[in-house]
Amino acid sequence: MDLSFLLIQLLNGVQQGLLLFLVASGLTLVFGIMGIINLAHGAMYMIGAYLAWWIGAQVGSLWLAILIGVPLMLAVGVLIERFLVGTLYQRDHLYQVLLTFGLILILNELQSILFGNDPNSVPVPELLAGSIQLTENQSYPVYRLAVSAICLLLAAGMYLLISKTRLGMAIRAGASNREMVEALGIDVNRLFTLIFAAGVGLTGFAGMLAAPLTSVYPGMGDGVLIICFVVVVIGGIGSIKGAFFGAMLVGLVSTFGPVLLPTLASVVVYLAMALVLLVKPRGLFA
Amino acid sequence: MTEQTDKSRKPLLRSLAATALGCSLALGSSLAAAADPVKIGVLLPYTGTFARLGESITNGMKLAVEQAGNKLGGRDVEYVVVDSEAKPAKAPENMNKLVVGERVDLVVGPVHSGVAMGMLKVAREENALMIIPNAGLNVATGKLCAPNVFRTSFSAWQTTYPMGQIAYDRGYRKVVTMAWNYSFGKESLAAFEESFKAAGGEVIKQILTPFPKVEFQSYLTDIASIKPDAVFVFYAGGGAVKFVKDYAAAGLKGNIPLLGTGFLTDGTLPAQGDAAEGILTTLHYGDNLENAADKAFRMAYEKAYGKQPDIYAVQGYDAGKVLVKALQATAGNTERDALIAAMEQVRLNDSPRGPWHFSKAHNPVQNMYLREVKNGMNDVIAVAAEALEDPAPGCAMAN
Fold first, then answer.
1. In this structure, are residues A208 and A23 in contact, taking their beta carbons and an 8 Å threshold?
2. Where in chain B are all domains bearing CATH 3.40.50.2300?
3. Residue A91 located in a structural domain
4. What are the CA-CA distances from residue B146 to residues A168, B99, B121, B193, B316 (Å)?
């Protein structure tokens, strides 16, 4: 095991962690800040990827597909919040679980009816199609690096929005004391619609951006859901910063873990979560 | 006195009436059986990663039955379809629902080997007839073989055993193997290793990745640093698409030859594109077998469903064919022992994959083909093993 091997693995880990942050960021907003348990997060990620594939095939460009697809996802988010999730705020978490589990079934069936069950691939945009030679027999796809850069930008943007702006202040306040914020004259209902839609939009965006990397197939969101909850729990519920470092930790652990401890490959991430929770029961940044 | 006779007569009358009623019921049901449709339970995945496989198998099977005039041994056919979701935990319950609840004559399924384990348990307890149209776990026609369990697909052993010798013949001596960490993945790698070692090669590392995760980047970096002569893998469906594309994107394609079981490139080539070109695989089917049965099948399938069939469609089609032939032989009788005896006799000389028949363990004895991906097709370049029979270790019916 030489230095270049370790460096490339480090790159793999960071890159995977950044992508994971992007995928988990939508869940952080909805689960972490609004306190809504959205089991359909993975299914929405899948729908995003399918939109990238289908629209991309019609218009011939991934970027254009994203420009069309993200507003679509935002609209879906608004509708779901207004007519479904929004009616359950007064009730127990269990109702949200039931509702969003039902959404998984509906979204999966819609995917099957609208797009079929074949695995599909989304071509990498031509501008980023190349790769960089790292060692004599390994190279790194430029698109992966570009996705990492986009994730970093997005993370910084979200952090600034939540912690430095008036809107961010209202969002944080609305999450911790809804009645008080209402009393101050802020329309919390509209605020929550906005956050939920943003969460769905982000999740869809993550699916679209990841589509060329993962290929697009039925059930692709199932695994995503669990790992996203792990990220949010490790980072501390409600913290964007926590989600970022949680994602980096999971990315690095799931890159180095299987290579260094092959027999523990499938549990290494959960071991890391257990360790974090032992030391910090409320997560890293709660 | 009269009272007494009356009393003694009543039970007699009642029992007579009961017997008569029972007789007429029994008669009625056996009469109805001839006119009743044959009830086929279908337990396949229609959602999730394996949805496309379930769809192909169903299409293939229905096509075979349609070509026989939608009749099995003169009787109509009724399908009772249940989505297995490819979830092993739900398999016993679903199987019970079909066998005990719906009283189906037989069950066709599943795709996933984990689901097969759950179904086999129920099939053995209830002595239910079952045809496996995909799941390739060795034990289904090995240690757990049973008279009432048939398979129209393959065993894991069959699909990878021939590749060991081929890899050695191509000059590869040190190979890394890689698969999802579940029973079928491990069985696939074991059979390759068995023949590759026997030929004189060495597996220098076996990598097992968590199922069904599709993040391979760190393993590819590992492989690049090991620099083996070749890599042998098992992945299927969305995982296969991702692996082949990642392998190429990491720059390993062209540097380290990629070998695999046929599932790596079957039903996935359009999505894999150029990244799959040149991959060598072994399987019991290919794209240019050039036999009349295959040509006819492909045309009929395309006409019925508007797309080209894949290996899973062939396995479903053959399951349908087995039923058509067996029920023809029993003249529509679905009584367990008679049907099993008839199925054992079926020889499919006109299968799209080439001729095959059941071994004593009820697994197909069939050709394995060596295929190379050329221009988006799985080109058959040789017969890797002719009429290959699974050794069925631990099966009392075979040994």
1. no
2. 38-154+289-366, 157-283
3. yes
4. 65, 17, 11, 28, 21
CATH placement of domain B38-154+289-366: 3.40.50.2300
In a domain, A192, yes or no: yes
Whether A282 maps to a domain, the answer reads no
* pLDDT at position B48: 81
Residue A219: list chain B partners with CB under 8 A. Answer: 47-49, 51, 238
> B354 to chain A, minimum CA–CA distance in Å?
26
pLDDT recorded at residue B146: 96
Closest listed residue to residue B395, CA positions, set B154, B156, B138, B152? B138
The CATH number for B157-283, chosen from 3.40.630.10, 3.40.30.10, 3.40.50.2300, 3.30.1490.100, is 3.40.50.2300
Provide the domain limits for residue A25. Answer: 13-218
Count: domains in chain A: 1
ipTM of the prediction: 0.85
Q: Which residues in chain B have Cβ-Cβ distances shorter than 8 Å to A115?
A: none
Q: Is residue A121 part of a domain?
A: yes
Distance CA B312, CA B57 (A): 5
Q: How far is B154 from chain A (nearest CA, A)?
A: 22
Q: Looking at chain A, how many residues does it have? A: 286
Residue A91 CB coordination number (10 Å): 11
What pLDDT digit, counting tens, does each position of A224-277 carry? 899 999 999 999 887 888 999 999 999 999 999 888 888 887 789 999 999 999
Chain A interface, mutation test: which of B221, B268, B274, most A Cβ atoms within 10 Å? B221
User: B238 contacts in A (CB within 8 Å)?
Assistant: 119, 214-220
Nearest chain B residue to A227, by CA = B213
In this prediction, the residues of chain B whose per-residue pLDDT falls under 50 are 1-13, 16-17, 19-32
Interface test with A, best of B46, B47, B307, B310 (most A CBs within 10 A): B47
Predicted confidence (pLDDT) at residue A196 exceeds the cutoff of 50 = yes
**B251 interfacial to chain A (CB closer than 8 Å):** yes
* CB-based contact, B306 to chain A, within 8 Å: no
Strand runs (DSSP E) across B328-376, as ranges?
A: 347-348, 356-358, 364-374
pLDDT at B50: 85
Are A155 and A244 in contact, with CB atoms under 8 Å apart? yes
Task: Provide the pLDDT for residue B28.
Answer: 41
